[in-house]
């Protein structure tokens, strides 16, 4: 059985997605679901589920319903997060609640969460259902806890870097790890290999988030795709800010805190430049890059430790490369 | 093994509820969940799950996690419905979103839905998990579809009685049927008996809703507990209204529609009296009572058809009586 590349697995998932009948009555409930599911996105998580299955020598299409469960779950979380963040746009299009109203946004998210479980159940003849459920439930709860922590952080001024790393692990990385794990379970992975693939996914996910923080402040606008400095303007707690607060002496810390006080009005450009120069003085860009590389390195060690032929690891390596070698 | 009464099963559930650690970090997420779970309510659905298990000769405590899944699901749906209905109070206390904010209300509901699946998973060694999941997923999807239909009805003027009966089946009765079914699966019921107990629950649930519609308009205020006529004032599509529109001749129908036009301002008492007198003229009170009794009768036939000793059916009969013999 030839190993399928990332692109081939994406095609496989697209074909399956096309076959799904999301639009059914009552349309007031399912049209919004079909809308968000067809809005695009990288389809990264379902492809990872398929890769996790293939890694252990099973045909990746065995994991298609699990891949769909993961993709629907991801979109459910976007629909509800967009309400909480009062976001008008998602992927350049109106968010579900801004297009269909708040109540529909809530209800559409709810039914998507249930549909995710419904797709997961379809794997009952391919793997122990209790194991799939345990992994999925644990992940789903982590995502909610991460979202709660993220919202708490906005109100807090004493967030630490370890707290931040846990939050991004829960909110973002847990789903990457779970996608791979669900595929691996269907692929017949051992308990040990399942842990390795989970940690591989989590660390890639965390590294990706640290890279995202880096790009937002230090990225080249032409490759990053949007103006840099957004996180600074929005007072967001990021790896960079929290690392800076950790390393700063008392007077520098005070200087940073002054710029982040909500009542301090100062020109956006001035604030961005001031904070960036403090970051540079403290070596934060380098520290973040190092943290990202350490996570990436550890992730690759977990992948290396898995008992599977190298050629089946190739698509995962390529995916990690693609995610983490964006120009910073 | 002596058959446990409704009261004894309620005690059993309460003891189990007390043992649960809902309050854990992050408290911003779990305190609201603990709040709504401890707010009270009849605990009807979990008790029905325990009864469903006992009916087939198994100790009811085997169904405790499934009972909790059903109770958490019910409360999840209340938390999100209260947001959609903009309801400030629930059981005389502030609703979750009015106490903790919209975002927390949404997120708290989400984590409760996941926790319901987590409790259901705990039954994996007591019954085929795929069967429990199928019943639970089907029910959960029906509840969402029922809620969507209920919201659609507010915007529509052409709702029919069969549509209404389907909506209350989905929104209310499906969960009653599923609670009983989950217990029955754990109790080891045959496929046929599982269908009977499901239909028993659904029909009791529908009968209860028809009774509720009756009481809202024709109940004695002292037994109903609140002022009658609320549904009429709020232009709600109820069994009574839809039956009246079905039976009315063209001129009576026009008369009804005039009172229900949103732009028609008329004193509440005048509207209530006018509509009630039309209902009486058309024999609606009697028709509703008959519909309720027919549902109840069919429900009891399904219970009678189940292969289980009469003494184990007793608690279910008593529960149905309690629910359906409120003074109208």
Explain briefly what this protein structure is.
The first copy, chain A, is mainly alpha-helical. Chain A contains 16 helices and 2 strands. Chain A is globular.
Commentary on this structure:
The structure is a homodimer of 328-residue chains. By secondary structure, chain A is an all-alpha fold. Chain A has two domains: 136 residues, Farnesyl Diphosphate Synthase, CATH 1.10.600; 139 residues, Orthogonal Bundle (Farnesyl Diphosphate Synthase). Chain A contains 16 helices and two strands. Chain A has a two-stranded antiparallel ribbon. In chain A, strand 1 and strand 2 form a beta hairpin. In chain A, helix 9 runs antiparallel to helix 15 and helix 15 runs antiparallel to helix 16. The two termini of chain A are 38 Å apart. The model of chain A has no long low-confidence stretch (mean pLDDT 95). At the A-B interface, helix 4, helix 6 and helix 7 of A face helix 4, helix 6 and helix 7 of B.
